[in-house]
Amino acid sequence: MLIYNNSLRLQLLLLEKSAAVSLKFAGEMPKQQHLWLFTIFFLAATFHPSLADVGTAAQYSPPYLPTACSGDDASQFPTNNLFAAAGDGIWDNGASCGRQYLVRCISAATPGTCNPSQTIQIRIVDRAETSVSRPSTNGATIILSTTAFGAIANPSAASVNIEFQQ
């Protein structure tokens, strides 16, 4: 009887410990799953796929004529004065003439320069490299008219980082 009772006690003790370990792991699994789900949702919300490109924008002021796209034709400019000259990265041997881009300021060297809630639509009317008026900064992706630049950023800035999409 003593052997039977000891054996039974040992089996019960092992069963109890096994159940405690199982419950311990079962209690941890939801936390681990919760952490993984949180991580996946956080990454999905933070790093959403974007069809836009990132570059820099500078500004240029009048005179805007003649342009590389349409020469002395003043009708090439949109009535809202939201236009730009294409930098070498988007010039595409003149194929960018007339293209329209959505442009948004995303950052600048000086905090508070951007108006990130403002997205504008601009039309390419010139080539930055050959424009009559020189840009505020060389090598920018897009050179915005003073009106366009002022719509998305503080006009006193020389250049800003932008997100743009055709």
TrEMBL record:
It comes from Hibiscus trionum (Flower of an hour). Signal peptide: none annotated. Transmembrane segments: none annotated. Pfam families: DPBB_1. This is Expansin-like EG45 domain-containing protein. SUPFAM superfamilies: Barwin-like endoglucanases. Residues 66-166 form the Expansin-like EG45 domain.
